[in-house]
């Protein structure tokens, strides 16, 4: 759960503001959200309220970080990605991972695709993807010293490997 942009209470309201190509996200607790909603509708007062919530130095620092975060493969900056909405190469997913995971979680409530699989895709591909996922989960379970879960995952991996070997 994200903290309020003003205080340290948990944010229960999330507001995204777009202005001149800049995206400002406000995470507000109950109190500060009501303060925000009480402001008159004219643009100047809303803008001044936003500025009071997001100190300019913090926004400048964030913009500077966006400019410094560059993909070593294609040279695109994170800011360019935010402005265009498109990556320059597949490696950008790794280069911007730290910023993308919270963004994807916020948008999709997940970081892994769980949708449909093409009908003409062989079942072995689906099983191979599941095998990769199980191996990752096994590694995490071992790192967390959850040996019961690790044993369960090991057995499931062996079963799946047996099925793939027979296919």
Keyword list:
single chain, 167 residues, extended, two-stranded antiparallel sheet, mainly alpha
What would your notes on this structure say?
This protein is mostly helical. It folds into 3 domains: 1-54, no CATH class; 67-115, no CATH class; 123-166. It has 8 helices and 2 strands, in the order ββαααααααα. The chain has a two-stranded antiparallel ribbon. The model has no long low-confidence stretch (mean pLDDT 77).
Q: Would you tell me the structural class of the helices and strands? A: mainly alpha
The profile of the biggest β sheet is: 2 strands, antiparallel
Strand content: 5-15%
**Alpha plus pi helix count:** 8
Helical residue percent? 55-70%
Radius of gyration computed on alpha carbons: 22 Å
Low-confidence blocks of residues: none
